[in-house]
Each structure stands twice: as structure tokens, then as C-alpha cells.
Amino acid sequence: MTLKSPMLWRCRGIRMELDRRAVVMGILNVTPDSFSDGGKHLDPRLAVARALEMESDGAGIIDIGGESTRPGAEPVPAEIEAERVIPVIRALKGRLRAVISVDTMKACVAEQALAEGAHVVNDVSALTHDPAMPEVVKSYGAGAVLMHMKGEPRSMQAAPEYSDVIAEIASYLEGRIQSLSSAGLDPTTLAVDPGIGFGKTTDHNFRLLANISAFERLGRPVVLGPSRKRFIGDTTGRTPEFRLAGTLAAVVCAVERGARIVRVHDVRETADALRVLERIQMAAG
Q1: What is the pLDDT at residue 1?
Q2: pLDDT tier at 264 (50, 70, 90 boundaries)?
Q3: Hey, which residues are catalytic here?
Q4: Which domain covers residue 218, as residue numbers?
Q5: For a Cys staple, 11 with which of 119, 197, 225, 237, CB 3.0–4.6 Å?
Q6: What letter would DSSP give residue 211?
Q7: Looking at the domain assignment, is residue 1 inside a domain?
Q8: What is the CATH number of the domain that holds 263?
């Protein structure tokens, strides 16, 4: 679909032009305990097959994670996280046209993933958890997703409060862009994510969805990950495996308001919804 303004995201040698249509980022969790699909793709062969399937279904980015960041999740040692994700990235190198993203807060895992051919580091701590992470991202010229998270996964949903959720998160993300740019990272390699479900109540999440334009004004691509999350279940009464319809409603709403990348489990259905939305936008002139 046609978006409001030109937007370029540089991810190593790849230039992602995000001014024409939104991009689907497919979620590939190689974990035993992710909230929706934990354990399904622990076997690297199954993970590789799923990545190729998601690309065929319309994913422009495959986001591979080896540590669950669901509410209440316990940290995973870096060695175990790397053992989960690196064989998958290595096996996918040269087999995907899609951009490969690694979902990690640990610089040593990110460096191994980038050395094996990953293009993006998707860091739920906005490159703050590990002091070495900014330099790793900078040294490879990798793309980086800077996400807002209030607290940490173990405690982030313990009654989060904001005086103004939109203003506070936008200010935080703007500060991270400025800080990392001052540290020498190319600002065109940065994308922002307001962090749906990461230290937010259901009401906070709906306010974020309704106000995506506040983050678009930061001048960097907005990534949004509503897929199957609790705020959808709180609204519909559905368990994660039955939250597709709610996810699609959130995705379409977000893209209409300026999100450039949507991170989802159900790639085929999301890509179809965005194709229909694009045709509607074209018909409207």
C-alpha cells in the first residue's frame, strides 16, 4: 500500500524502501517457552523449513529468536541462545531473499548471528541491555530495531503506569535515536518499535495502536508486533491460537496509521490482508 512519506532502512548491504508498502516480519521462535508457538521449531530443520515457508507466504523479514521475552520469562544463558539461533541462520544463508533478523539483547549472540549473515538486530531493550551491543551493530552496519520496554520481561507487566504513554514512549525512542546517532551509528539503520505488550496494559496497547503517527514523526520506520498478544485476548476472550482475526484488525489499523513493518506469526494471512488494504488505498486515489 502507498504510505505517507518516503522511508529508507539500511540493513548492511540491503536498502529497504518502505515508502510503497508495509513489510511483513515473520516470527520464528526457536524456543521451548514462547507464549504462542514455543517448542514448535526447536529442531533446526523445522525452523529452516518454516523460514522458507514464511518467505513464500510473503515475509520480507524473518525474525529469529532464541530467548522468550514473554511476560514472566526467565533469562537464557548466551551459549544456549546461540546454540538455538546460529545453526538456523547459518543454514538459511544464501537460501533466503528475505532479510534475516536476530531477536536478541546479547551482543555476543548478535555478533555471531551477523557473522553468519544476519542483517538486523531486533533488540527489545533498544540496545541498552548489553553495553557492547551498539558497537556490534555499528561495526557491521546492521539494521537495528529499537523497542520500548518498561522494566524487564520478568516484571514488565506488574502494574505498569505512565503519565502519558504516547509522549513518554515517543520521547524515549527519540532519545535512543539521538544517543546512538551521537555514538556513530547511521540513523538510517535504525527503526523504532513502541513495544506492544512490553510493560503496557490493554488500554495502553490500544492507545499506542490508535496513535502510531506519533512514532512515525520520529522519522524512522515504525515496527509493530501485535501478533496474538494478550490485549487481543482480553478484548475477544480468545486464547493465543484463536487470535488471528484480532491480530489482523490491529495490523491493518497500524499500517493505515503509518507502521512500516508488522511482526506476526501468521504471515500468509497478514500478507493477504495488506494486499487487500493496498487495493482499497489505490481505489481511493
Answers
A1: 39
A2: very high
A3: 229, 263
A4: 8-284
A5: 119
A6: T
A7: no
A8: 3.20.20.20
What is the 8-class DSSP label of residue 141? T
Count of CA atoms in the C-beta half-sphere (13 A) of 85: 36
State pLDDT tens for residues 84-116.
999 999 999 999 999 999 999 999 999 999 999
The string of DSSP letters for 69-124 reads: -STTPPP--HHHHHHHHHHHHHHHTTT-SSEEEEE-S-HHHHHHHHHTT--EEEET
In whole angstroms, give the CA distance from residue 172 to residue 119.
24
Kindly tell me the burial class for residue 91, based on how many C-beta atoms sit within 10 Å of its own C-beta (0-12, 13-18, 19 or more).
middle
> Does residue 39 register a pLDDT over 60?
no
pLDDT in tens, 196-248: 999 999 999 999 999 999 999 999 999 999 999 999 999 999 999 999 999 99
CB atoms within 10 A of CB 207: 18
| Sign of the alpha-carbon dihedral angle for 62, 66, 72, 78 | negative
Number of structural domains, the chain?
1
The C-alpha cell 505512565 sits at: 162
Task: Tell me, yes or no, whether 2 lies in a domain.
Answer: no
Categorise residue 93: left if φ over 0, alpha if ψ from -120 to 50, beta otherwise. beta
Report yes or no on 3 lying in a domain: no
Highest mean pLDDT among 2-6, 74-78, 257-261: 257-261
Contacts of residue 104, Cβ cutoff 8 Å, sequence gap at least 6: 65, 66, 67, 81, 85, 110, 113, 121, 122, 123
Task: Establish if 129 belongs to a structural domain.
Answer: yes
